[in-house]
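Exercise: predict the structure of this protein bound to zinc ion.
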Amino acid sequence: MHARPPSPAAVSPRTSRRRCPACDSQRSPKPARPRLGTTGELFHFARCGDCGLMFVTDPMPEQHTLSVSTGRPWDPASLPAPRFRPGHFYFAAAITTYVRRAPEPVSLLDVGCGGGELGMLLARANADKLRYVGAEPVPNKAGLARARGIEVLELTADQVAADPAQAGRWDVVVLDNVLEHLVSPLDAVRGLRGLLKPGGVFMIAVPNLRDVRRLTQRRFPLWIPNVHINYFTNRSLRRLCRLAGLTPGYLHADLRGLPLRARLGWGGKQLLERLLGLSPRGLYIVARNR
Ligand SMILES: [Zn+2]
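Solution:
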């Protein structure tokens, strides 16, 4: 199916983005090459001149929130095996390193926890020192995570940010591949910041616009509007954090015991990230509440 590009008149201000959703820059973003989405629809892009974020300007998918898919139905009698990505192992190792170094037990809320894959890896490694809770609005996914032994709040990011019972009670809020889906990622992080204790941290993973796999893998699926509508660089993610009142830093992982696939490319990772903004996988950062 081939959809025709929408005419300018067909794009209402409510269904398009004209300002950078990561830094709210006053400068007009520079139009970039349109790209076909996963549904065959044409999406228009722009690049922020201030922070470097590449983002879909229009059309905005309706209700484009965390609920990007309904998840697959599953059978309670035979739970599906978890589908771990290499990024799950890497992120779990980085969080485990952080938890082990923390002087006190850590409470962690994983916003958009899906089927609980990250929680399963963290529970194995940190049973006595980490209280892990997920938030997931899609019933199929939340139920699967629960069936795997994860405590889950069935809430969207907005709902959990607005829940007085969650305010100021978490040491760590995890956003694992969430911000690339949101219409207003800066507003989302500002809202979720209220969940943190003073001195608490966000741990954030997003795909990297400057992922070196783009150069080495011909079919690396970076461009997937309408699933991903924000494409971050190291600079744009850090700027978003600072504007949300956070101090961004690097997330280190103790990589012993990781599968080889997740370890590959580690050698030059710090050099690549800090000097060139490139990374051999997504961007992973820690950002402390000021
Ligand atoms: Zn920007």
